[in-house]
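> call design_seq(struct)
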């Protein structure tokens, strides 16, 4: 079997067009411009790239972008003060604090200081609780992007066996909740799971989010299964150059799977597209307007 490649880059472009249409409508019919504030603390090179990309795509969609770059030694009180200011700014509908934060800052405290209604990352404890109980929430961008790709490829996910490898708060756990919400039978596997290969072999859907380069080989995959690779790992390639790989061994998995997301060009671009979608959703909710269909879970 040769797997269908699920093209996240192309799908993300479609979502961004959809977002831009909704932004234009908000402006024409209501005089509202959705605004996204992104806060970066420190100089992590990958984070700088992602934040730049977020700002550029926000502006391209017709929204207002507010970038706040703080030095690595920023103290907690200063960061919390900025978040408070953004919480109270009516021009800002979405707030995102880029992760990881420098080690001296308490990530949970910072995340939970964002107004849940503006928490376009969906990481605030209120949004986690709402998602877990099947209520309307802000949904974390990476799992939302994975869900959209799965729905587009499969149609209904009802009754499918899904294995999520990884139990992080930002991907594994919310991904499992979303799959459960679509009536999958869900297993969350992790480093202590007994006989991981056998568990993965039962799955119709495998979501790999462990952060270990090429950990999942093709002989763990059930023939015809759909493989969603969340990993973005930079490894040493040929001639001293680095290259990006996912958490699954692409070649061997693609030879067995029915469908697979590539790295790069799979889940990554969907993350930022879903961030823009969440910002429009947050803006519509803030103004009591109906939410755009198809942009959230
Ligand atoms: N507050 C948040 N912090 C972080 C999140 C998040 O959702 N919210 N996710 C990641 C980083 N991330 C967005 O912030 C992100 C990662 C990767 C991509 C992406 O498009 N990747 C490309 C490859 C890019 C490259 O060449 O390095 C791809 O996969 O095709 C977008 C966003 C951690 N922090």
């Amino acid at each position: 079997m040769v797997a269908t490649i699920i093209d996240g880059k192309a799908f993300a472009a479609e979502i961004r067009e959809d977002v831009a249409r909704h932004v234009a409508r908000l402006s024409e019919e209501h005089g509202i411009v959705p605004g996204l504030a992104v806060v970066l603390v420190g100089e992590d090179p990958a984070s700088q790239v992602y934040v730049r990309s977020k700002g550029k795509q926000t502006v391209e969609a017709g929204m207002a972008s507010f970038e706040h770059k703080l030095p690595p030694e920023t103290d907690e009180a200063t960061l919390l003060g900025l978040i408070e200011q953004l919480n109270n700014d009516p021009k800002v509908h979405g707030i995102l604090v880029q992760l990881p934060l420098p080690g001296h800052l308490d990530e949970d405290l910072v995340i939970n200081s964002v107004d849940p209604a503006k928490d376009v990352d969906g990481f605030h404890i209120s949004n986690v609780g709402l998602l877990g109980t099947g209520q309307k929430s802000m949904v974390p961008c990476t799992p939302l992007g994975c869900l959209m790709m799965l729905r587009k490829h499969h149609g209904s996910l009802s009754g499918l066996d899904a294995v999520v490898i990884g139990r992080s708060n930002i991907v594994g756990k919310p991904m499992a909740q979303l799959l459960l919400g679509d009536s999958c039978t869900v297993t969350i596997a992790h480093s202590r799971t007994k006989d991981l290969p056998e568990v993965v072999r039962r799955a119709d859907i495998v979501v790999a989010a462990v952060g270990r380069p090429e950990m999942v080989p093709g002989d763990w995959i059930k023939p015809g299964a759909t493989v969603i690779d969340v990993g973005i790992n930079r490894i040493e390639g040929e001639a001293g150059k680095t290259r990006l790989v996912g958490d699954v061994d692409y070649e061997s998995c693609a030879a067995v799977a029915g469908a697979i997301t590539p790295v790069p060009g799979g889940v990554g671009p969907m993350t930022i597209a879903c961030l823009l979608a969440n910002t429009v959703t947050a803006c519509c909710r803030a103004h009591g307007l109906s939410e755009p269909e198809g942009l959230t879970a």
